[in-house]
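ugh ok so i messed up the first submission bc i forgot one of the chains. this is the corrected input, ALL of the components this time, i swear. 702 residues overall. if the numbers dont match what u have on ur side tell me asap before i send this to the collaborators (the ones from the other lab, u know who)
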Amino acid sequence: MKLRLFASVLAIGILAAGQASAHHSFAATYFEDKTMQVEGKLVQFQFRNPHSFIQLEVKDESGQVVRWSIEWGGASQLGSQGVTNETLKYGDIVTIMGNPGRDPDDHRIRMLSLRRKSDNFGWGQRPGEVVN
Amino acid sequence: MPRGLYGLLFAFLIVTPAYGQISIVGEWAGRYHEDFDDRVPGEVQGDFTGVPINEAARRYAESYDVRRVNLLEHQCQPYNLPHIYRGPLQFRIWEEKDPATQEVIAYKEYIGTYMQYRTIWMDGRPHPPDYAPHTFMGFSTGKWNGDVLTVRTTHIKKEFYRRSGLPSSDLTTVTEHYIRHGNLLSHVLIINDPIYLTEPFVDSQEFVLMDRGNQNWLYNCEYLMEVPMDKNKVPHYLPGTHPFISDFSKKFGLPLAAVWGGAESTYPEYMAKLNAGNPATTLRNVPPPPVRTNDVRPELATVHVQGNVYMLVGAGANIAVQIGDEGVLVVDNGAAASREKVLAAIRKLSTKPIRWLINTSADVDHTGGNETVSQAGMTVNGNPADIIAHEGVLARMTETSRPITERPLKTYFEDGRDFSFNGEAILLYHFNGHTNGDSIVYFRSSDVVVTGDLFLTTTFPSIDLQAGGTVDGLIAGLNKTLDITVPKYLQEGGTYVIPGHGRISDEADVVEFRDMVVIIRDRIQDLVKKGMTLEQVKAARPALDYEGRYGAESGAKFIEAVYKILSEKK
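and heres the new structure output, hopefully the right one now
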């Protein structure tokens, strides 16, 4: 019984995560063996399928504001983890760690973890909090 | 035997049902014990193993940039039928029965991933004609062979076999076998793709009957700008420049030639070649099916597209007819030889006066019936029905000495015009694409776009240089069509598009055509910059991955036209 329950939970997990990943291959889009970190002001939180996106305005070394697009899980996947379209707000200062996109000019990252400065809200530390 | 037992036996025989067909009804969940990395998270770039690809598929995949999925029109595209069962999914099967006979007339499927509905018709109905729209799930009919349900599907939209960019064409047909053993369902796909595969591609996957409800059935997809980019820029790599194409072969230590091996590499005999250090294979190309071009048929077919708009097929070019209380409007009217048939078909749709004709270009296969149809109609002033077109059409018809009664007298020279008829707005947009007199016609309430020869599903586009056509204008026209079209549900339906030739289409079909035009244009542009002659450009085969689908002859003409335009611009 426990094994069947485990298999069912695993299947649900694969499905919830997989519906987002069915869209495209992360391994083909990002350098999965590299990580980088950005901190910036959240200007848009696109909570949806196939993937949620966070748009950040980040100051580069020269002080210029550059827009970064952070790819997160699909709404189905995140919803099952308690994330809603109100979890993040315009103006939040967040630090994001993730895998960089294969073309640096895209300024895109696949989320590994997020930390909000104002209240230390975080994602990416608890089991299951992966974008796959 | 005691009499009581006879009675008992008799009662048993009455109430015991005859053994019926095995049931495949239920909710089924996938098992990913094989090919997990490809089927769920996705592999690194460059996995082309195990698929009997040809040269065209290889070229397509070598050029494919995975960031194309970020384009608005691609984001919500579901996997098509040959692909969807390979991905993470669960699906539900139920029966639809004839209420009078209780016979199964269809199996219905709901596939949670991408929220796709399928119908497998069991009542022997024929498949639709070639000009019917394609969908991602296609049109399916089924038959039981013992306890195996065999399903045949046609009319499938173009998509991929792998997310690495191995294309599956819209001429693919699929045979499936559903085989149930207890609580397991084996699902076998036999895929025939005359454009990109050299032989049938066989895939199989296993599903388990779910005995617990699963709430994860929804996948509402919303397309929006994910990563800032030009919404009309098609990501692709020029031939030979894909920086990540060897990632898979490097990751698994396979020779690149083996990864690209095609059918030969899928057979056991290939191991000997691999062990001998000779992994090279030959990717065959098989002759593709003939592509319908001029589309003149013995009998015209009339199809209701949407709202007030119908399509007539078989008179040369496609014809759109809008009917309503105010009268009839006709966009294009086919070749001259079919003009009486066209008129008869219009009369079957409506006996109200033909008030307006619109010409999308001056081409004779679009305007051969101008005089007949116009003279059969009447404006409110009692004159023959007005013919509207861009002034480029009138100029062309004058230059080619078409009779005055065939020429449009209501012309426009600006970017477009609009008017209302039969209770809906009709908008015309002008482009110098196929010719310098092209019009796209949009029926706003019916939500139907008529593109003329700016968009086709039969051949490569034709750029008539003598008539002022340009490749940039062609692309602009296609992009405008994409601006207008709004899909109803996951890149399907919604705004329908009547091409100059070919089947009723939607945004997903137009975007594939647009992508193709841009990619070939970019390739030729690159070769022109390198100083290549036309012969050298042709030898480089910039349209190789599309020739099987759209035809080598029209491809050669398209390459020549684009080369001339781009080399003059240099």
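quick check: Confidence is low (pLDDT under 50) at residues 14-18 of chain B. that seems consistent at least. The CA atoms of residues 416 and 429 of chain B lie 4 Å apart.
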